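Reopening closed ticket. The problem is back. First fold of the pair:
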Amino acid sequence: MALPDPRFSTPQVLGVDDFAIRRGQTYSTVLTSVEDRRVVDVLPTREAGPLAAWLDRHPGVEIICRDRSGAYAEGARRGAPDALQVADRFHLWQGLGRAMETCVAAHRDCLRNPTPSGMLPQDTRPASDRPQGNAEPVGRRAERKKAAHALVHEMLAQGHSRRAIARHLGWGLNTVLRYANAARWQDTIRDNRPRPSRLDPYKPYLEQRFAEGCTSVTRLHSELVAEQAPVTYGMARVHIATLREAPHRRTAAPPHRRGRRRYGR
């Protein structure tokens, strides 16, 4: 206790990392001197503002060794724009391990059920041989969805907010919310099949009348309304337009009529 306090000096190589005061809820930031491995300061949060303010009050930092948090990157840019930002060895290995784990998780089915020689892999099989209905989706797109879903939920379990995940990954917030709100990765695959329309039960009738030579949208719509069909004029017009554009309905364009040529005096 009688020893004097160590003299403070701004380190040239500053280490920036977060630590949990209450895991999953409250986090702070610890600043260390990488060269002599001593704690320099502790910030109350892990946001960009306090780090930028500390760097502004303590000029002289040349290298900032940090994790891959987007908030720390922003704070370092604002507080020490001339400093070089690098990743420390621990977070490099941690990032490599997470990327490997995500890749293995995406190909887990391939590891459990290796493809016999002479057979096509799942993502190159003909469309007729792929699982249909409620079967689990396969292919490169499904693997990307599975890996992204696993990555987002892993970062959520580590206590990162959805906005922080979006900044860290460079994704849109809505994309992160879609993965975060999905209990299973299969729920993130949207169904691209056309939605049912009120006109569907009446399309065979319209196609039959169109084939008979009745191509007037007004007349066809009036016939449907007379039968109390719950369809609008726009629905009928769009479907008749698709019938006109069908390949077997196209006819040759009429010959171009040349106008009379006027001769000057």
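Second fold of the pair, where the issue appears:
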Amino acid sequence: MQTRKIVHVDMDAFYASVEQRDNPSYRGKPLVVGGSPNQRGVVAAASYEARKFGIHSAMPSVTAIAKCPGLIFVRPRFDVYREISTSIHTIFKRYSDLVEGVALDEAYLDYYSA
């Protein structure tokens, strides 16, 4: 008998991790992907290093920079994130016929196991 399972995949810090992957000088440093604190920006994603300062997504960028003055701000590159997300969803489809993307960094998979 097969058992149906719903698997929820949420790729934590996805945008920030992509930026750290693509730019080695960002690795190990507090980084956010989002708008500038000088232009009423908002944090879209925070690296694990930035999270240690209490920085999280949806936080105003001006609040984030106050919590961590050395914070690195990177503008989003949604075309790159979309391309990587598509590749990851291709991997998901090897394991499930039903993959429902919620966002570039989140999906649900129906999975049947013996």
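Update: turned out to be a display glitch only; the data is intact. The first helix runs from residue 14 to 22. Helices lie at 14-22, 48-51, 61-67, 78-92. Please close again.
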